[in-house]
Structures are given as C-alpha cells and as structure tokens.
Design brief:
Elements lengths: L1 H83 L6 H11 L3 E5 L5 E4 L20 H4 L5 E2 L3 E3 L4 E9 L6 E8 L2 H6 L3 H6 L8 E5 L5 E4 L13 H8 L2 E8 L2 E10 L2 E8 H49 L17 H75 L3 H26 L1 H5 L8 E4 H19 L2 E6 L6 E4 L1 H17 L8 E12 L2 E10 L23 H5 L5 H11 L4 E5 L5 E9 L19 E5 L3 H13 L3 E5 L2 H11 L4 E5 L7 H10 L4 E7 L3 H8 L6 E5 L3 H12 L21 E5 L3 H11 L5 E5 L2 H10 L6 E5 L7 H9 L5 H4 L2 E5 L4 H9 L4 E4 L4 H12 L4
Parallel strand pairs: 13-15, 19-20, 19-21, 21-22, 22-23, 24-25, 24-26, 26-27, 27-28
Antiparallel strand pairs: 1-2, 1-6, 3-5, 4-5, 5-6, 7-8, 7-11, 9-10, 10-11, 12-14, 15-16, 16-18, 17-18
Length: 897
C-alpha cells in the first residue's frame, strides 16, 4: 500500500498531468488556427476594399498628371505673354489675363526671387526665400529649363484642390507662378461607387465593413446600420484616424464588435466581427479539445495503473519486503525477488550498494573523528596562542614596574648616608625583587597559560603589608609624575587574611598603575586607595577596595570595552599612554576566581573609580611591635599638613593607638594651637624639598622642648630631607602615604621602652660547613659569584667548572674531594643532564652517592622530574633563594640553619 501511495500514484499523476497539458496545448493550437482564419477573413476584406480604393487613387493620379500638363501649359503660355508684352505686368492687365485664362492667382518675381507683379497687389514685395512653400521655385532662377508643379493641396471650405506651378521667364530672369483650382478628389472617388461594393461584403454572420471619409463620415457600410450620432467624438474613432492600422473595439448597432482597421489615403477601412460570434469560433474548439483531453487522461490513468500494478508494483512490494533485511545488517536474498531479470539485477546492485555504504560509513566515521580531533587540537592551539599573547604582551608592563622601584631605590640607597635609610631602600628593593620574581614565575608557568587556566593559591598574609609593598613598588612612578597618593584603611579589616597575596597585589598594582598612567602630572594628580570591610558571609570576609583618580576619565560608550583582553577604553590610549590593555582583563579573572567582582565608574574628563570585591577567610593574628605600645595617658599630637586627606589619614591612624590629634593646615594655625593647648607629645610637620622649616621648628622646640618632632615626606626625597634638616631638631621621619602600621611603629619608638630580643627573627642563621667541599658547575660567572657569596657565611669550600665536561673531569680526578655538586643544566660542550649521567656512570664508589643538586631557571614540575630521572638529588630554582639553599644543605649534611 505504501508503494502505491509513494510510487504509483505520483507516477500516474505525472503522466495524467502531462497528457492534460498536451490536450490543453492542442486545444490552444486549434483555437489559434481558428483565430488565425478569422483574422485572415477580416484581413482579406480589408485588402479587397483597400485595393478598390487604390484603384481609385490610380485614377486620381492619372487625372492629376493630366492637370499638371494642363497647368504647366498655362504657365508657359503666361510666361510667353509676359515676355512678349511687358505691359501685361500691369496689375489690371494681370487680372484680366488671369480671368481670361481661368487662373485664380498669377505671380511674377524679379531675378532675386522677390514678388514684383501679380493680380493680387497685397502680396507684392514678398521674398520667395522666406517661405518653405516658395523656396523650391527659386531653383528655376538657376536652371531656366527646370519647371515645377507642386502637389495639389486642399483649400477653402469646399475642400477645393489648389495647385501651384511655375516656369522661368524667357529673356529676363524671374519666375512666373500660376495658382489654379482643379476638381476635388472626393468627386472622383465618389464617381467610382465604393459604397455599392462594400454593401456586398460580409464577414461571418454578423460582421462587415465600414469605410470612413476624411471628414470621418461613413462612406460605405455593409449592413447600413451604423449610427454616426455621438460616435464621432469617441476615442476609437480618434484611434483609427491617428494610426496606419491595427485592432480596434467599438459598438455597432448597440453590440460590441472587434475589428481591424487600415488607412487608405484619406479614408479609413474597418472590418469587424461581433464579440459573441468571435468567441464562439475560438472557444468552442478549445472547450471540446480540453474535455476530450481530460477524458483521455482519465482513461490513460486507469490503463497505466493496471499495467504498472502488474509489471512494477507487485515486484516492488516483494523487493520492499526483502530490503527490510538491510535494517538488521543482512542482504537482499535473490531467491525472494521477482523472476524478472531486471529486478534480480536490481537486488544485486542493492547488495553491492549496501557494501559500499557500509565501507563509506566507516570511512566517514573515521574522518569525523579525525576532524573532531583536529578541531579540538586547533581550539587548544588557538587558546594556548591567545593565552601566550596575553601574558607576553603584559610581561613588559609587569616587569618594568618593579624594575623601576629597584633602580630608584638602588639610587637612593647608594646616596643615603644614614643606615636606617639604606635599610629602608634595601627593604624596598627586596619587596620589588620578590614581586618581579613572582611575575617571572608567572611567565615561566607556561603549562597553566597554555591550558587557559589561572591558578589561585591560598596562604596567610598581612593585608596592610601587602598594600605597602604594592605602593612602594609604584612609589617611584607616582613621585616622578608628582601625584599625591592617599591610602585609607578600614580598622575593621583583619590584620591577616588567607588568600593569594601575589594575585591580589597584582590586581591592586594594575589599578594603581592605570590611575598613575591616566592622571595628568605637574603636581595636580590625586589618587586615592580606599579599603574597607563590607561584612562577613559564611566565614569569609568581604573586602571592597576602590582606586580613584582625577585623571582623563572614560566616555560612557567606552566603558564596556574596559575589561576585554588587549583593549583599552580608546584605541589611541596605547599610543599616547602605553600599556598592553591586558591589566584589567587579568584583574577581572583574578577577582572572579577570588569570589568577587570588579567594575568602574567614570565621567569623561573627571577621573575614574575602579573598585572590586574579594572574599577571603581570616588568618591567625600576629602580635606586632605596635600592639605592645603603651601610650601615656593624655598623650596628644599636633599634625601640620596642607592636605586635608593627609591630616585625616594621620589622625585616624593615631586614634587606633589612643593618641588624640589636633590638625592645622598652616604654620600660624599650628603655633596658635600650641599656644592655646600647651605642649604636645608629638608634632607631625609636612616637609617638601626646598622648604625652610627652621623658624617653625625652633618655635615649636622653644614652647614644647620635649615634643618629638616628626617630618612627613616622600621616601624618595629622604636624601634631600636628611640634608636640609640635619641642623634642625627633627627626631623622626614618617613617609607618605601614611599607613597605620608605620604610625604604630613610630609611636612605639617614641613611647615604648625598647626590648632587646634574644635573637632577631629576621636574621638568617648560617650553619658551619667548613669541613665540606662543593663542586659548582656553572658557565655564567656572575651566577657563580652569587652562589659563592650566598654560601660564604657557611665557610663551605668550593671549586668551580665552566661546563659539564670540565665538571666530569674534575670529579673523576678527585672523587673523594667533593661532598656535593651544584649542577647548572644549560652549559656549553656538555649540559647538566649529560654531565650527571656521566658522573653516575663512573667506576668510583662515590659517583653513585655524591649529592647532585640542579641549579636552573627551569622550574616546572616536568623539569624537576627530568632532573631526578637523570640522577640528580635535588632542584634549586633561579634566582637562588638563600633560605632554599640552606634548607637543601641542612637536609644533606644534617645541620640546622
């Protein structure tokens, strides 16, 4: 049944439809033939009438030729009379002569073609050159043998035919022109009795012929029933008189007719046939043909259905049942097919096709798996390449920032005379170096970058110390541009938190760097860092940190692009201000991994504020020196600073330790407070390079001799501050921006009794390794010097080799001499891996047991595994950390640090 519906019926329907189309085509062809016959009959009627009218025109032409001869003869005679008798040119004689000859008009020109004589004086003086009608007569002047006879034209209300003829004057130059009337064409044509011929013409049963004259009156009518009345102004009459011929539709005796018209001279012939009769001729054969066609199509469909059922359908049904075996993976059984050879061959073809399809499906499956693997590999490669590009583009910015701090603090440390200032500079160098090392470690962590992952580690850290480290690293750039940086810390923030200190510092560094970069210099830039505790949720502290500036700001339409990789708010930013456009994108990833979010608010030209939140658990609080401060009862401090932000920061920090502060914005106000309130325990005084504080400090010292005078200034200006205040009564220095821990440390120095600890916890304890000997294999001389300098306090004795080949030779010559080997991996001639394998392969007993420690910048886990597989016992990453080196030696020799 399905085959009947899906195969038989469509096939039969197509065949029946084709037969029906053929029937329609035949019907239309028959109708077209009949229509052509009808049009032929109409055209024959037109041609018959036109031929009769043409015969009339021929007779008229012959008559006109005779008139031309007659008129030319009159013109010649008139010219002869004028030539023989010049007096004939008198007007009166001209009139009599014209009357005598039966001529209406006589004109005579001079040799220039100007009218000089004639029987109509009103036209004298007319120049034949002025009219297109008279110009042809001028040719007679240059050719006396030329004679001209113009075609007759109708003139007057009676449509008289009027003709002009002309000849040259004999003897004297000039033209004789004669105008005379001739019989009308209509009279000649009427004499041929056209109407009698047309009356006898019939087209079909109700058709006929109409002939219209030039005046649009009916000259002849086959049926004599045409009503002129109102038809004269109708559009169809305008149509037949405006064209040479064509089809036309109109009403004849109240019945719609269709006809053809033909222009014959000044007359129009119309042959017509009523619409009803015309349609009966055309549509009746068409309808009959269509009916017969559909009857034939129905009969054909029945015959086809029976034939196809017997010949095709039943074998196909058997074949359909057999093909179902293909669904279970089988093949078509030839025995079940029809006995027809064609269907047997079809079964074989199907079996071959199934085999090919099975192989093709397997091949396609393999191709799709390979394509999927290729796409996955391509996506991984694209992601890895993007990650590499992102990180490498950000590398320059991330490395230059701590390098600026290292270079700047190195300059300060070298020029500082005071040991405290040197220690401060070296501490800042250490912080910047640690930050730089963290950046380098991120760069080297290629496996994480290639995987598109950003790792977050958890560890305890001091939040304020982290902020100080970031500010100290960026302090040199901030000072260079003359910006003011204010830090405000919420006292509710826990002292220690558990999280990724370096990643958090990276976010703050990015935001502060952008604030410095996009804030104008020349001392007008103000940058604020505000950190506060928003609350706690599920044991996690929610911190919000905001960095604001008064820089160039960001347009609203550019805000959405801020946190995209490689993009800045404006495409011109990177050209004008530098930067890779990766800082904010990386910051967003870090913040989101810490369970927070980051955003920005800004108005163009009014600065910007970037803020983010992070969630971190509390850490274990440590007891610091500031916590041990015992503040004297009633201790007060005087703060003198032109900046309201600095004054408030210092007041808030001092209040944490119980010290009340009075604030003044200028020296006079400060001295007035000192006079009114009496002595202060401390006096914080703002200092700027080149500013003379001697008079003010002397006044404070005179009124309050025991007051501790503290100078407030930028750490990068300490050398100048030391030089300018060396003869002034300045006791302490406090650097900007102000942090509570710095204020606490200063109060501790000012009020507390200093404790002498048994041992400085920060002091590194070196073991005595004077009874041990080391072999150092390192091709870079400065790296050897760094290691030897680090190990110098341990008294460890050492020899060094410039490459792996030399290290193997030295150990082979004295295997009992060395207790440890420090092995660089990348060296000329022989690298560290090959040198280690060669040492382990020596016959000496010590070769198998001597500790070999790798020293390399390759710090990935796979690098460490490769070192151990080569026979090494440990791994130290470059740059070397003295604590890690000492831990390694302690593990080898059993001696504590």
């Amino acid at each position: 049944m399905k085959i009947r519906l899906k195969v038989m019926l469509p096939v039969i329907s197509v065949l029946v439809f084709a037969f029906a189309l053929i029937s329609l085509a035949v019907g239309f062809n028959v109708s077209a033939v009949i229509r052509s016959l009808v049009h032929s009959q109409i055209s024959n009627a037109l041609s018959a009438v036109d031929n009769q009218l043409a015969a009339t025109d021929d007779i008229t032409t012959i008559a006109m030729a005779e008139f031309d001869k007659k008129n030319l003869a009159l013109a010649r005679a008139l010219a002869g009379i004028i030539a023989a008798d010049p007096d004939a040119l008198e007007t009166e004689r001209m009139r009599r002569l014209a009357l005598l000859l039966g001529v209406d008009e006589v004109y005579v020109t001079d040799e220039n073609g100007v009218l000089r004589w004639g029987n109509m004086p009103e036209n004298l003086g007319f120049d034949f050159h002025a009219s297109e009608q008279t110009k042809p007569f001028l040719k007679i002047l240059s050719d006396p043998d030329f004679e001209l006879a113009q075609a007759p034209t109708q003139r007057g209300v009676d449509n008289r035919l009027f003709q002009y003829v002309g000849v040259a004057r004999k003897g004297e130059p000039g033209i004789v022109q004669v105008g005379l009337s001739i019989e009308t064409i209509n009279e000649i044509r009427a004499s041929l009795n056209v109407e009698q011929s047309v009356v006898q013409m019939r087209i079909g049963k109700g058709g006929g012929v109409l002939v219209f004259g030039a005046d649009r009156k009916v000259l002849a009518d086959s049926h004599g029933l045409f009503k002129v009345r109102d038809e004269v102004g109708e559009k169809w009459l305008e149509q037949i008189f405006s064209g040479p011929g064509g089809e036309v539709e109109f009403a004849y005796n109240g019945e719609a007719v269709r006809g053809h018209y033909l222009r014959s001279g000044s007359m129009v012939i119309v042959a017509y046939l009523p619409f009803t009769e015309y349609d009966s001729y055309v549509s009746t054969p068409l309808h009959s043909t269509i009916i017969l066609g559909f009857m034939g199509a129905a009969l054909l469909s029945i015959v086809l259905y029976l034939l196809l059922t017997r010949i095709v359908l039943r074998p196909l049904e058997h074949l359909s049942e057999d093909v179902k075996a293909l669904e279970s993976g089988g093949m078509v059984d030839d025995r079940l097919l029809s006995r027809s050879r064609e269907f047997s061959l079809l079964g074989e073809a199907i079996n071959n096709m199934v085999e090919r399809i099975t192989k093709s499906d397997e091949f396609i499956r393999i191709l799709r798996e390979r394509e999927k693997e290729r796409d996955e590999a391509l996506n991984l490669a694209v992601k890895a390449n993007t990650a590499k590009g992102n990180f490498l583009a950000n590398m320059s910015h991330e490395m230059r920032t701590p390098m600026n701090a290292i270079i700047g603090m190195t300059t300060i440390g070298k020029s500082a005379a005071d040991a405290t200032k040197k220690d401060y500079a070296f501490a800042r160098i250490g912080e910047a170096s640690a930050h730089l090392l963290g950046v380098i470690n991120d760069i080297l962590d290629m496996s994480k970058i290639e995987a598109g992952k950003l790792a977050i580690s958890a560890g305890g850290f001091n939040f304020e110390d982290m902020l100080k480290g970031v500010v100290n690293v960026l302090g040199f750039r901030i000072h260079q541009k003359g910006h003011a940086l204010y830090v405000k810390l919420d006292p509710r923030i826990p002292e220690r938190l558990i999280g990724d200190e370096q990643r958090l510092a990276q976010v703050l560094s990015n935001l502060l760097s952008n604030a410095v970069k996009f804030t104008p210099g020349e001392g007008r830039g103000i940058i604020r860092l505000d950190a506060r505790l928003e609350g706690e949720e599920n044991g996690l502290c929610i911190l919000r940190v905001a960095v604001s500036d008064n820089g160039i700001g960001i347009a609203p339409e550019q805000m959405e692009r801020l946190f995209r990789s490689f993009e800045q708010a404006d495409e011109g930013m990177s050209r004008k201000f530098g930067g890779t456009g990766l800082g904010l994108a990386i910051s967003r990833s870090i913040v989101e991994l810490m369970g927070g979010e980051i955003g920005a608010k800004s108005r163009l030209g009014e600065g910007a504020t970037f803020s983010f939140t992070v969630k971190m658990p509390r850490g274990v609080a440590e007891i610091s020196g500031a916590d041990k401060v015992i503040i004297p009862v009633g201790a007060r401090a005087l703060v003198l600073d032109r900046s309201a932000d600095n004054r408030q920061c210092l007041i808030d920090a001092a209040l944490r330790f119980g010290v009340q502060c009075c604030a003044a914005s200028n020296r006079d106000e400060a001295l007035s407070m000192l006079a009114q309130n009496g002595p202060y325990a401390l006096c914080f005084v703002e200092w700027q390079p080149g500013e003379d504080l001697s008079v003010f400090l002397d006044a404070v010292a005179a009124r309050s001799p025991k007051t501790v005078l503290v100078a407030l200034g930028n750490a990068l200006d300490w050398n100048k501050l030391e030089e300018e205040t060396k003869n002034l009564p300045v006791d302490k220095f406090l650097s900007k921006p102000i942090f509570p821990s710095d204020v606490g440390a200063l109060l501790n120095e000012a009020f507390a009794v200093p404790e002498t600890p048994d041992q400085d916890p920060d002091q590194v304890q070196y073991p005595d390794l004077s009874d041990h000997y080391a072999l150092v294999a390192e091709d870079v001389e400065i790296n050897r010097e760094v290691l030897l300098a680090l190990l110098e306090p341990t008294s460890l004795r050492s020899d060094w080799a410039a490459n792996g080949e030399e290290a193997v030779r030295m150990f082979k010559e004295a295997p009992d001499r060395y207790d440890v080997i420090f092995m660089d991996l990348q060296m000329p001639k022989m690298d560290g891996f090959e040198a280690t394998r060669n040492i382990r392969a020596l016959n000496a007993p010590q070769a198998a047991t001597v500790p070999i420690i790798a020293m390399t910048a390759h710090v990935f886990q796979e690098d460490i595994d490769r070192c151990l597989a080569a026979g090494m016992d440990g791994h130290l990453g470059k740059p070397l950390d003295i604590a890690a080196v000492l831990d390694t030696l302690a593990a080898l020799f059993g001696k504590g640090k």
